[in-house]
Write the structure tokens for this entry.
Amino acid sequence: MTRHAQALVVGGGISGLVCAYALRKAGIEVQLVEASARPGGVIHSINRDGFLLELGPQSFSGTAALRQLSKELAISDQLLEAPPRAPRFVLVDGALRPVPLSPPAFFASSLIDGATKWALLRDIFDKSVPPDADESVASFVRRKFSAQLLDRLVGPFVSGIYAGDPERLSVRSAFPQLYEAEKAAGSVIRGMLRLAKAKKGPGGRPTLQSFRDSNETLVRAISNNLGPALQTQTLVRGIAKRDEDSFEIELEGMSGQNSVTAKALILCTPTDVAGTLLGQLDAQFESLLTSVEYAAVAVVSLGYRKNDVGHSLDGFGFLVPRSAGLRVLGTVWNSSLFPGRAPQGQALLTSFVGGAADPAAAKLTPEELAALVHREISPLLSIKSEPSFSNVTIWPRALPQYNLGHGDRLARIEKLQSQFPGLWLAGNYLRGPAIGSCIEQALAVAEKVRARLLD
């Protein structure tokens, strides 16, 4: 049996969900298929023993696109905003030190020495040119500023976003605004100010947000909107170009095998899946897409009685520089940020272990990971007892790594993709791994598909 749809979206993570939603909103007949039993990908929330746990991203940046999407889905009233002045901490010399969040606070802070502060001031007036070759984040920071800034702030920040290795991450791909700022103005600071001034839209920095009943609120709202257009537990077995205007896709679901023809095919899967499927069209897809590396991350949530935690937990949480010698990358103080995350009298702390620099961590057992995290964070937060609750989730392919050469790889993928009109890609390996970035990229792809099918 062969069915027809104007567009078929493969992959029900946030990118696929948003893309399918936008296409349906535009009046396009769309089908979304997801291999697993639930949509949402790494956005996964559960309730256990009175704790509300985020098994993937703990929160998200409230971008304009995400706010608009929430409004359309009638879930804006469920949005929660973390305390905007909640301090962030970084572990330095065995103590948690507040991260300066404004220029005056930065220059007044003892976290960074005088040489680094001078390097930042010098950047305002000097002029530099980025190298022609792709440059790592670590090389960029050392060249422009200092090794201390890399160790104490940039490195932990990179771990928080990508779980990546700054020695391997490409500054052009992972933080393109920094590269463009130096290229355009010869100064990172002057260039960033110029970019901010030229940026259209309302001012203000996006706030840190979640939904009252968990991040999965967004997933459920889009899924409900799609209705029968969303099919879970459905595998793509084959892809073929039927003619210049359409693809034929072989599916296997709960009710057996069938095929779909579609004028637009949008793959919103991780690169290993996309590479395997598109390799049926051209072997180059498989070699290019599967060469994108991913970092494994373990998400470890521990609950403690508040009376057994000596630290006030007033803030967002803390990040850990690699020089500190710990395996924990950072810890979020969930119950300090949003209400309803822990039972009365309890504190919920979620830590991250692994990343590109510690792949062996993901091979530890949940019990070993929970013990490791408790052992490392207890002295930092003056915790006096064993955790009263624990939950461990291991993501073997948590985050794509925008390593050196990533930009060139994406350019080659895009060139190859152009040879197959009607084929599109969306996902967290293209324009940033954050939820907001995925939403913006998925909306952009949906608009291109809409223009092709309807204009």
Observations:
- DSSP finds 16 helices and 19 strands in the chain.
- The mean pLDDT is 95.
- The two ends are 30 Å apart (CA to CA).
